[in-house]
Design a protein that fits this description.
Helices cover 33% and strands 26% of the residues. The protein has 604 residues and is α/β, with parallel strands linked by helices. Among the domains are: 188 residues, P-loop containing nucleotide triphosphate hydrolases (Rossmann fold); 71 residues, no CATH class. The strands form four sheets. Strands 16-17-18-13-19-20-23-22 form an eight-stranded mixed sheet, sandwiched between helices. It has a six-stranded mixed sheet with strand order 6-7-8-3-9-10, with helices on both faces. It has a five-stranded antiparallel sheet with strand order 15-14-11-12-21, with helices on one face. The protein is globular, with a radius of gyration of 24 Å. It starts with 5 loop residues before the first strand and ends with a strand. Keywords: ATP-binding, Cell inner membrane, Cell membrane, Hydrolase, Membrane, Nucleotide-binding, Translocase, Transport. One of its GO terms (biological process) is transmembrane transport. InterPro entries: AAA+_ATPase (IPR003593), ABC_Ni/Peptide_Import (IPR050388), ABC_transporter-like_ATP-bd (IPR003439), ABC_transporter-like_CS (IPR017871), Oligopep_ABC_C (IPR013563), P-loop_NTPase (IPR027417).
């Protein structure tokens, strides 16, 4: 479908990467257009060439070892006319990036500079491209942070990326991309790290920008519900090729290509589990329906017991860097997980979900409370005892690029935990590694590759394989499937359910994807500003939500139907709550009302 006056036009784009095994063609002759005021969603599996296409348009693919071997990348610069970005010199490209083409990158920690403050990074583009004074740039930066729903934006300007949660960092990257109101906005998985309430607001903001300024949006995502809510047209990619293109309604209601049909079938939908007491695998087209009958049901024996866990972080300020406030990341959090069961923690970015997982492993030191794994008191262990205990509890981190070593091959990274604990050596070790690659559906040929040679979704599968290497009793999965496209997500979730069934692994599943949580959980705890506001069995929480915040979360879940669009940018008036409080702040007691069964809600 070619348009008369598109802002961007891809014509027969081909991109190659050089690897140890010879050249790999990542994009094979792809053509499509994006018009002013239009959102084109590029969907497909991890490794299908979606991100490579967008990086080619920005001419950033060359910095990652790629080469545009053929095709044209036409871009309409308005008064300056149409240009072919492929042939532009680096100085002209620098003027276009950020000002005329903005990009929201997939992994916020790799696209933010760790040594500069948030304020400096936001203001740099504003001063460079828009010629603003320092004061005007600061004022605009604060306004942008407020637009992307970041609490206390003035304070955030002085913070560094590592001081923010994954979802907060992603919102900073979105603010940077929107700063100069570009003609074309490339959004590469912009909402994977965001909870549903913030996601709805950010998508509403992008829609508002599109309507107000005529910005064209190239939206790369694996979330088909977001596609249904945002896209005007859809381009489906598979193994570097465009396999289908059409209006969003046509793609959802009458998909022609078998791969598009597979993608839509693998989408978990909220409400599918009504009346189902236990987790259920996702169906994958072309594969027989799996059953977990004969699996190990959760026992009554408690593996992990957490009581009154409180974790706070000091906020430094002033010339002498004194403590001026505290972040109340966790406040009196209590729950237990039985052997072979899954408890899911859900809530918005910054609610304390990841801090909870890290506190259990003592990657963050709690102020008070107790953590018991079996008969071991985790908070009482010395460093040697803690090292031994961590063999039984492993974590899959939110950002796979940050948790993998860029200088080690993937095989060495998966083997490392087994070497550290002397579990295997030599050929037995490599056989085990190869078996783990098979388990997470990665080709054994990838064992010689490095992390940068993989897509985001493939890296996440390596992180899962490494966490499984020690056969842990407890797996803490921190947004473990948020970076995966739906078909791979379905495979990984089924893998986790199978492992739970075979090995009786307990899971603390941290996620903001309500449909996924509904699919895999036995129990659910909803977190808000460091406290659990509602907890119970999956059926109690999902089929009878009682707390106002839980109801808000459920209502914000996007629907995978382009004819039911619910996104609104009507959040301007809502105050943004913050977990940062003065030193003399008294959080008050944490008391619950019992609603029957295992269902409790926080007294407001």
């Amino acid at each position: 479908m070619m348009l008369d006056h598109p802002i961007a036009r891809f014509e027969n784009l081909k991109v190659e990467f050089q690897t140890q095994d010879g050249p790999v063609e990542a994009v094979k002759g792809v053509s499509f257009d994006i018009a002013a005021g239009e959102t084109v969603a590029i969907v497909g599996e991890s490794g299908s060439g979606k991100s490579v296409s967008s990086l080619s348009l920005m001419r950033l693919v060359e910095y990652g070892g790629g080469e545009i071997s053929d095709g044209r990348l036409l871009f309409d610069r308005g008064a300056a006319g149409q240009v072919d970005l492929r042939t532009m010199n680096p100085n002209d490209m620098r003027a276009i990036r950020g000002r005329e083409i903005g990009m929201i990158f997939q992994e916020p920690m790799t696209s933010l500079n760790p040594v500069f403050t948030i304020g400096r990074q936001l203001m740099e583009g504003l001063r460079l491209h828009m010629g603003l004074s320092k004061a005007a740039a600061r004022s605009r930066a604060i306004d942008l942070l407020r637009q992307v729903r970041i609490p206390e934006p003035e304070r955030r300007l002085g913070q560094y990326p590592h001081e923010l949660s994954g979802g907060m960092r992603q919102r900073v990257v979105i603010a940077m991309a929107l700063a100069c109101e570009p003609r074309l906005l490339i959004a590469d998985e912009p909402t994977t790290a965001l909870d549903v309430t913030i996601q709805a607001e950010i998508l509403g903001l992008m829609n508002k920008l599109k309507k107000d300024t005529g910005t064209a949006v190239m939206f790369i995502t694996h979330d088909m519900a977001v596609v249904a809510q945002m896209a005007d047209r859809v381009v489906v990619m598979f193994r570097g090729e465009k396999v289908e293109e059409g209006l969003v309604e046509d793609i959802f209601e009458n998909p022609q290509h078998r791969y598009t049909q597979n993608l839509l079938a693998a989408v978990p939908k909220l409400g599918e589990m009504r009346g189902q007491p236990t987790p259920k695998p996702l169906s994958l087209i072309g594969q027989p329906e799996k059953s977990l009958i004969g699996s190990v049901p959760p026992t009554e024996e408690v593996l992990l017991d957490v009581r009154n866990l409180t974790t706070r972080f000091n906020v430094k300020g002033g010339f002498f860097r004194r403590t001026v406030a505290r972040v109340h990341a966790l406040e009196n959090v209590s729950f237990s997980i039985k052997k072979g069961a899954t408890l899911s923690l859900v809530g918005e970015s910054g609610s304390g979900k990841s801090t909870c997982g890290r506190s259990i492993l003592r990657l963050e030191e709690p102020q008070s409370g107790s953590i018991k794994l079996g008969d071991r008191d985790i908070l009482a262990l010395d460093s040697a005892g803690l090292r031994e205990a961590r063999r039984d509890m492993q974590m899959v981190f939110q950002d796979p690029f940050a948790s993998l070593n860029p200088q080690m091959t993937l095989a060495d990274q998966v083997a490392e935990p087994m070497k550290n604990y002397n579990m295997a050596q030599g050929s037995e070790l490599m056989d085990r590694v190869a078996g783990l690659f098979d388990r997470v559906e990665l080709p054994r040929a990838f064992m010689r590759r490095f992390p940068h040679e993989l897509s985001g979704g493939q890296r996440q599968r390596i992180a899962i394989a490494r966490a499984l290497a020690l056969n842990p009793k407890l797996l803490i999965a921190d947004e473990a499937v948020s970076a995966l496209d739906v078909s791979v997500q379905a495979q990984v979730l089924n893998l986790m359910l199978e492992l739970q069934a075979e090995l009786g692994i307990s899971m603390l599943f941290i996620s903001h994807d309500m449909a996924v949580v509904e699919r895999v959980s036995h129990h659910v705890a909803v977190m808000y500003l460091g406290r659990i506001v509602e907890i119970g069995t999956r059926q109690e929480v999902f089929e009878d939500p009682r707390h106002d915040y839980t109801k808000t979360l459920m209502a914000a879940v996007p629907v995978a139907d382009p004819r039911q669009r619910t996104l609104q940018a009507d959040f301007e008036s809502k105050p943004i709550p913050s977990p940062i409080h003065p030193l003399d702040y008294d959080p008050g007691p944490t008391e619950y009302t019992h609603l029957g069964g295992e269902h409790y809600i926080l007294n407001s």
